[in-house]
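User: Sequence in, structure out. Go.
Assistant: Echoing your sequence, followed by the structure tokens.
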Amino acid sequence: MLLDTHAHYDDEAFDADRDELLDSLKEHGIGKVINAGASVESSYTGLRLAERYPWMYAALGAHPNHVEELSDRVLSEFEALAKHPKVVAIGEIGLEYHYEEPARDIQKIWFRRQLDLAAETGLPVIIHSREAAQDTFDEMQRAAARGIGGVIHCFSSGAELARRYTDLGFYIGIGGVVTFKNGKKMKEVAAAVPLTSILLETDSPYLAPEPNRGKRNDSRNLTRIAEEIARLRGISAEEVQRVTEENALRCFPKLANEEVG
């Protein structure tokens, strides 16, 4: 089955047909979905969705653009919820330097606090990094030394850095960008890193693959992503599907909790 390790079904883009769409995913071969937290509110909303759908799971965390919503109280609540059988990761967390706010120092403080949370709870992390490659890698080197694992979501750097991450034991999240005509860097990554280090993701509703680029994305597009990785590696899409499923279950052990809800 196909596992979507990163989606945002709490997003308002799905307000009109969320239930209908989610009810249809199984018949399209989508076995499990992780709804990633982007803000405090979306973390809680994602968990409610996970409680409603047996095959959906949640990650708790604040995207770097939303870290000013965090507090000691929120992190304590996240720590308590980490014991929930449907909470599989801390994320998405990381660094976002494309925008000037919040300040980089503030982002780093809360990134480290959320990495501490992952260490304390034993959960893997889902990492966001944009225009912050070196600072993110430095933090993740320290995280790996503490036994923290996880995935670099929507990876956007080159193959050399991807291999450095996989050498540390992290997974590389590959989504629709690998199908883009101008996605040369991502195509090189998809061909270069070990298949056993790749996770499939959509980042729905964002980054729909070709030929749907620019439209609302959803987990049904995982097939196109798997097919493009297979083409780049000269293997079958079935092999990509099988190995990435195994990878996801290794990265997020609580995904193996069948039909918990």
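User: And one key feature?
Assistant: The chain is about 40% helix and 15% strand.
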